[in-house]
Amino acid sequence: MSFREKTAWISLVSTAGIYAFYFWSVLHAAPSNPDGYVDGLLGAIVALVVVQMVLVVAVSAMTPRKEMTPRDEREELIDLKATRVAYAGLASSVAFACFFGAFDPPIIFGTNSLLFLLVAAEILRSGCQIIQYRRGG
Fold this sequence. Notes:
The chain is an all-alpha fold. The chain has helices at about 5-25, 35-60, 75-100, 105-135. Helices cover about 80% and strands about 0% of the residues.
């Protein structure tokens, strides 16, 4: 498994795990405490940054230097394809969110649903990268 595929796995698993916990806590939070939402989001962001940094540094330390080459054309193409798929999913989802926004949902619901769509697009991008690396580009 290449270094970039490992980092895609780190991104996929850490993003899915941390934000799954965040969205679960939002669903079970008391609506009377709006500060809990901000604290939870900041905690999720900090946790994501710390977890990804630690894991990428650990994988980098265990990867031989000869495998840590600059991106080549194949890896750039993999990244572009994954980004295209994720962007299409994100654009479609935001269009639906705008439609449902016309029903005047609570601001916490609207904000977290847009954040959920952004997180889902990032997970989709990482997943597409992994699939492309497994197929060989």
